[in-house]
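task queued by scheduler; priority normal; single chain, no ligands, no partner chains; default sampling; output format set to structure tokens
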Amino acid sequence: MKLTVIGVGSASPQVDKNPSAFLLSIDNEYILIDCGEGTQYRLLDQSIKVSRIKTICISHLHGDHYFGLIGLLSSFNLKGRKDPITLVGPEGLQKILDIQFEAANTTLNYELNFVLNRNSQDKVLLEKKNFKIESIPLIHRVQSTGFLVTEKEGDRHIQAHKLPENFPLPFYSELKKGNDVVDPLTNITYLASELTKSGTPKKVFAYCSDTAYNPEIVPIVKEANLMYHEATFLKDLDQRAEMTQHSTALQAGKIAKAAVVKKLLLGHLSSRYKSSEEHISEAKEAFGNVEMAIEGAVYDVI
């Protein structure tokens, strides 16, 4: 699993930062998380193969997190896309898209399968063979949801040198699943623990979009390999953060520490800050392994 940072800015436009958008790659499939204004141009700029985007998750209906969506979906249509897209989003998003497409007299050439996320509790929103997406209930002025993306553990690896000659082919798939098998002809039991080794371990990315400080998410994001958490303000503006239902860098660090995550990325800084150094220092008061999310950077989720 890899994370590409497309945009990491906050609501007010900034010359050097683009609105929120993050791209996860799992095998050959992309998951786009949030789609702020101009996201499709940033994808082009980074030579992202957008045809691989199969899933789009929108955290909430503040413009810096979804104003780029209609443009991206329209461009897919213009380019003759046929592959379906799963769109995970809050109540109201589908109505917004319907109004825009109706006004433009546009009919999509591909299926747009909408998954409604009510943010009432953490739940599985989408599950595929190799990954699943769960919701992280957040606290904001409008319904806001984080996303927990888990790349599932890979099949066990067969240790071919330990297999007997002419080992029955149908047994391979069962051993890869970790199941022991019994040969009905010889009554010999083949143990998966002896003939295989662990597959690729699962990897977890936690995306915590706009939210007030919310320790209740700790059990959900616990031990994530990588967590992105908004850090709109510094601690001297904690009352401002509480009023606007955002977080400070220190609060993001506290969540990371309590959840024992491996690495923390910060973003969504208020436009009042011209440097991110104080945010990093403040978060490190609570949690050591922290970085600022950098647009265009690619992070291995390990």
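post-processing summary
- The mean pLDDT is 94.
- The first helix runs from residue 39 to 45.
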